[in-house]
Amino acid sequence: MIGDLIYDVGLADGSDTAYYLSKNLRVVAIDANPIAVEKAREKFADAVRSKRLTILNIGISKEPGLLPFWICDTKPEKSSFHQSIPVREGLPHHQITVECRPFGAVLAEFGVPRYLKMDIEANEIHCLRDLSVADLPEYISFEKSGYEKQQLRLLSELGYTQFKIVSQIHFLPVEFPPSSEQRRYETACKLANSRNFFVRAARKLGMRHWFDREVSRPRIRAGWSFPMGSSGPLGNETAGKWQGYSEVLDTLARAEAARERGEPSIFWRPEESWTFWADFHARRPQVVRQTNPEDQESCSGKLMCRSFLVC
Q: Which one is predicted more confidently, 117 or 287?
């Protein structure tokens, strides 16, 4: 695993790549859409020249070759190797042919990243199946697509033990009971829109800025504002607690059941199933090796060092 390397599989508008570059990380960005790739090469020209960013205009598939790809004309983020994705929303689209590679070939060329972000409209499974237990990213995220149970099971089999579901709308964690971040956000929203006389007076007396700041707080980390639909913070910077495999499956089941019952939530609109817009994040136990006492002694000569697991 290469500690400063990030894979952005599903470059789209470049929002995630821009964030990773701002953290002085190296990025391999992948997208099948040549329009998105060309825009990114212009936008990140300096990073490309300095070799901090490599952009690949390819698709990820089981076997190498050329495959049909559908460009969504009005919502580029809906472009996919699955024509059903733009079709189900009645969006205009057209077909092109795209070069595809197995994800294992990309890993062999550029190395295993610290963090693997995936958002390629239900093709994430091709990435996961090419990962090796012997060398895995520390963190992985993928967008909710309807195949998440299969993907979570595969991650568990690979050795990932901790998971989160994080909204791509608010960047708040989906948890039961609601997280402290969610409760704080909901309170701020109510106060920002309350018709109560005293709350309205407080807003006029200068509290409006505080309300607005609290509503936007989940989107901002260290001065960076994440646009809706991006993957947001990475790794331990994501909001919420890490959940075990069984716990995250239970969280997903409870959320889906609540949505199907039409219960109101900040995470979806009951009348539109696609609005449960979230990323799944996974973290694996990390082997940390301290300095071998045979190689380095403490001032007292009594430094005891060993390998251990950090969960």
A: 117
Using one digit for the tens of pLDDT, what is the confidence trace for 155-183?
A: 999 999 999 999 999 999 999 999 999 99
Q: What is the pTM of this model?
A: 0.86
Q: How many CB atoms lie within 10 A of CB 58?
A: 17
Q: Which pLDDT tens digit goes with each residue over 114-128? A: 999 999 977 899 999
pLDDT of residue 297: 38
- DSSP for 284-305 reads --EEEEPPPTTT---TTS----
Non-local (6+) Cβ contacts of 40 within 8 A are 11, 14, 17, 29, 31, 55
* Domains of the chain, earliest start first: 2-175+227-289 (3.40.50.150), 180-219 (no CATH)
Please provide the DSSP assignment of 69-109 as one string.
EEEESS-GGG-BS-THHHHTTT--EEEEEEEEE-HHHHHHH
The DSSP letter of residue 64 is S
